[in-house]
Every structure is written in C-alpha cells, then in structure tokens.
Amino acid sequence: MSDLRIEGLTITYGGAKALDNLSIEVKTGEFVALLGANGAGKTTTLRATSGLMRPAAGKIFFDGVEITKVPGHKRTALGIGHVPEGRQIFPDHSVEENLQLGSFVRRKHRAETTQSLEDMYGLFPRLKERNKQAGGTLSGGEAQMLAIARALMSRPKILMLDEPSLGLAPQLVLELFKYLKRLHAEQGLTILLVEQQARLALQLAERAYILERGAVKIEGKSKDLINDPRVAEAYLGTAS
Ligand SMILES: Nc1ncnc2c1ncn2[C@@H]1O[C@H](COP(=O)(O)OP(=O)(O)OP(=O)(O)O)[C@@H](O)[C@H]1O
Ligand SMILES: [Mg+2]
Q: N or C: which end of the chain has fewer CB within 10 A?
C-alpha cells in the first residue's frame, strides 16, 4: 500500500500562509499531477510530505498511519521518495556515490543496494557510462536522471517529483516523461508529479489537482481537466 493523504494542511512562513487548509490524496498505484502557478504551494506540499517543513495545522497519513510528526529520514524509510526542486545532487561526489547516498536509509541491506544500483544503470544506461564522473559535470538532463535514480535507490512506494522538466530541452523532457510513464506502468510505482508544463503533465497523469494560493482550486481526472475551459484558459495557455 502507498496511499498518501493530506488533510487540512496549513503551513506559514513568518505569518504568510504558503498552504491554507490543503487536502489532497494519492492512492496506491495512481499517477497524480500537482499543478498551479508560481507560488501556489506545490513545493511546500512536497516538502511537508517528506518532513522538511512543520505544519501549523493539519495531518499527513501514509499507508493509513499518521506521519505528521515523523522525522524526514524515517519517512524515506517508510517509502516516501522525493526528487527536490533543482535536483540537489552532490556536485563533488561521483554519480555512483550520489546513487549510494540515496540508499542510505537501507544501508543494512547491502546486497539490495548492489541490486538497486544495477537496476538504475539498467534504467538509465547514461548513468552507468558516467558512473565515475563527478555529479557536477553532468548535463541538465543527466543530472535530472541522477536525481530521480537517487530517489529510487531508497526503494520508495511513492515518488514525488518537483518540476523535473525545469531547464531541460523539450526533447529531453519527453524522454524523461517516458521514464516516468514506464516506472508507473511497469513497476506500478505511485507518482505525485509537480509540473509547470501542465499540458504534458495532464497527458501523463490520471488525475490532477490545481492549486491556487495554497489550496486546491480545481481537481479531477486529467482527461476532463484538459477539456475544462477554466483549466485551458488559466493553465494550458489556450483560450477555448
Ligand atoms: N523560504 C521561504 N520563505 C518565505 N516564503 C516562502 C519560502 N518558500 C516559499 N515561500 C512562499 O510560500 C508560497 C508557496 O511557495 P512554493 O514554493 O510552495 O510554491 P510553488 O507552487 O512551488 O511555486 P513555483 O512554481 O514557483 O516553484 C509562496 O507564496 C512563496 O513565496
Ligand atoms: Mg516550486
């Protein structure tokens, strides 16, 4: 199981509300997109879920267990994987070291780490070719693949990605999204994807939430949202 449930979450930055009574849910095996304009609260939602921010109010449940006060590293061990905004790989560590750091929460299972590394090299052959190279020398697309592979090294049940397409050429974005689609379809990975490229995200995800000022403005199935005039005008850049 990998149900994620966020109930009435409020997060403030020095009095200003970044999230305002936000409730969303991602069911096991779902691919859900989290959309919205700059500053809507997408990153804050992911950071709160992985334990990097403390909410002023509200609760977070994972697999039916409340994790609101569980520290971040324990949430990783429970199966919450987070690919942060801006990738945040270690530039001076090699590609392989970056990957190994991703499996830190599972360090007691050494054989498993070796297997996970092989899996990642199978999934992203480019990382294998460059495994001795410093993280900081990778291209933007390779760095994003490394950030995703690193998160997968902890064997997450749910993978949350924060704008993975940012700064990538269109061709690379399509390649990256193909990987996400495969992880979801072939391995049944539960995915929560934050994206600015709303149209692309709606083509991938089954369902989406659109945030505005820290709360859910519109939610629904992707195929309905793509044809929803409110969505088309405000978020897809196509008046209809
Ligand atoms: N460190 C911070 N200090 C103060 N305010 C912050 C901080 N980080 C975010 N905020 C504010 O919280 C709100 C939500 O920000 P958040 O980063 O979650 O938005 P976002 O949807 O991820 O935006 P973007 O699309 O630009 O990444 C915004 O109003 C933002 O200005
Ligand atoms: Mg953000």
A: C
Of all ligands present, the nearest one to the C-alpha of 213 is 1
Measured CA distances, 94 to 5, 107, 121, 143 (Å): 36, 18, 14, 11
Cβ(138) – ligand 1 distance below 6 Å: no
- What is 4-90+155-235's CATH number, 3.40.50.300, 3.90.226.10, 3.30.1330.10, 3.40.50.150? 3.40.50.300
Determine the atom of ligand 1 nearest the C-alpha atom of 194. Answer: 22
Strand, coil or helix: 19:
strand
* Whether 225 contacts 202, CB under 8 Å: yes
Counting ligands in written order, the one closest to the CA of 42 is 1
Q: Which atom of ligand 1 is nearest to the CA of 45?
A: 18
Instruction: Give the residue among 57, 139, 136, 134 at the shortest CA–CA distance from 97.
Output: 134
Instruction: Name the residue with the closest Cα to ligand 1, atom 25.
Output: 38
Please list the pLDDT of the chain residue by residue as tens digits (240 residues): 679 999 999 999 988 999 999 999 999 999 999 999 999 999 999 999 999 999 999 999 999 999 999 999 999 999 999 999 888 899 999 999 999 998 877 677 777 788 889 989 988 899 999 999 999 999 988 999 999 999 999 999 999 999 999 888 888 889 889 989 999 999 899 999 999 889 999 999 999 999 999 999 999 999 999 999 888 877 776 544
How far, in Å, from the CA of 213 to the mean position of ligand 1? 10
